[in-house]
Amino acid sequence: QCKQLIDASTAKFGRVDVLVNNAGANLKHRAIRELTPEAWDSLIRTNLDGAFYCTHYVLPQMFERKDGVI
Prior knowledge:
It is a single chain. The chain contains 2 helices and no strands. The protein has helices at residues 2-13, 37-65. The protein is elongated and about 45 Å long.
């Protein structure tokens, strides 16, 4: 989904100049004694993996414009 987002944005606007990873999830019962392994996995996938994959797919075009220096 992240690759599709970057590809669609690039196709529509020509390039991505700025990426703000501003998606995240939170849980009401997030204390370690209440947090289940399934809830933990969901938080990690949303809060960390999503930011990683969006950054991973947008960086190549940003590197091309900055001669590999960001």
